[in-house]
Amino acid sequence: MRFSGQKALVTGAAGGIGASIVTRLRAAGARVAVADRDVTGIEADAHLPGDLLDARYADALPLAAAGALGGLDIVVNNAGVITRGQVTDTSDADWSLSVGVNVEAPFRICRAAIPIMAEAGGGAIVNIASCWGLRPGPNHAVYCMTKAAIASLTQCMGRDHAHQGIRINAVCPNEVNTPMLRSGFARRGFDPDSAVAELGKTVPLGRIAEPEDIADVILFLASDAARYICGALIEVNGGKAVS
Ligand code: NAD
């Protein structure tokens, strides 16, 4: 049980990748606090529902998790939203939503978690950026910008807080078979199963990622096996880099 005795907070726990992270962390011995707008029915050790756009909720989450679990060793900032379109298609609401969930909430959570972890001698934070945060794809200008922002913040925090024994890294997936991707296909009138199968043909490994493919890398980064990795952006793309 490589996470035996460790305490973890996972945001976006009700989503595709989030659910897989929670299941795997608990199976590996961690105690896990789950955060999402609705956490009903999720098997976990603490339930902390709320809206990450509420600054007071995001600011308070790490302490709430530490209080509920008896400490905090791991934070996974996984919650995210995707808005489509070029800048000229982007409403004020899309801007605020994307920046609020994808950048401001992880900033607030890291800012609150770091002193708790430092006081206890260290910890690990894993942020979920995107391959589109490294090299932007078309027609998702603000989404790409938010993922570049969290990637940059990860690099900065990874360097600034290493001396406190806190390792901060990010995973940068390409397409993953989750509600985020599938609902986008459905909204545009495509059958999600066929669209996912078609998309898989564009990936050198022959399929898009399943949530578990990403969760395993997140667990690696959170674990002692990654003890010398700090401020890294790990692309997980089945061989399909965005050019
Ligand atoms: P998902 O939509 O299945 O899950 C996202 C979760 O975040 C949802 O459960 C949602 O309720 C939660 N969330 C969103 N806004 C929130 C808010 N205001 N307050 C609280 N919770 C909120 O998506 P996923 O694919 O599992 O995405 C997980 C992460 O992976 C995201 O950061 C996403 O940007 C990133 N990512 C996904 C893909 C992909 O293709 N699916 C690719 C690259 C990166």
TrEMBL record:
Q: What is this protein called?
A: SDR family oxidoreductase
Q: Does the keyword Cytoplasm apply?
A: no
Q: Which organism is it from?
A: Allomesorhizobium camelthorni
In this record, what's one Pfam family?
adh_short_C2
The protein's UniProt keywords, in alphabetical order, are: Oxidoreductase
What's a Gene Ontology MF term here?
Answer: oxidoreductase activity
Q: Which family does it belong to?
A: Belongs to the short-chain dehydrogenases/reductases (SDR) family.
InterPro entries from the xrefs?
NAD(P)-bd_dom_sf (IPR036291), Sc_DH/Rdtase_CS (IPR020904), SDR_fam (IPR002347)
Q: Which residues cross the membrane?
A: none
